[in-house]
Amino acid sequence: MNRDQVDGVLAHWPLAKRDALIPILQEVQESCGFLSRDAMLRIGRHLDLPASKVFGVATFYNQFRFQAPGRHRIQVCRGTACHVKGSAMVLEALCRHLKVQPGQTTKDGLFSLEVVACIGACGLAPVIAVDGEFHAGVAPDAVAGIVEAYRAPEALHA
Ligand code: FES
User: Fold this and answer.
1) 43 C-alpha vs ligand 1 centroid, how far in Å?
2) Residue 140: is the preceding peptide bond cis (ω within 30°)?
3) Interval between CA 114 and ligand 1 midpoint (Å)
């Protein structure tokens, strides 16, 4: 974690109170890529909140990541249109294939998995994005092939 980045965010919130916790968590994640334990402790001290409160709030929302992002970022849309078309099963298949939960990064550091709200491509539901590239109408049994296509170039350079 880069302490300067966390302190840089906190400097924008000199008089912040506990109601600023979520926006601060969001800004720190945007700046650092994830919320480290140390970052959450510093945020808690700044807001005069116990660490347990900061951890509790951060873990309640699935928008927050607690590990450094992987080289490839997989986003699974869980907006309404994608939900209706079975995005829960797509997410489940990805969790199984990558052996991670949303918000986590694979052990090899290659992939991080995120759940996001509507990403604005409802006509293509269910949609996942890998490194910002959309994959449309994804079936649960197709996720392994999609993910491995991103892994393959890595293997060539290994
Ligand atoms: S709900 Fe998934 S792209 Fe809109």
Assistant:
1) 32
2) no
3) 14
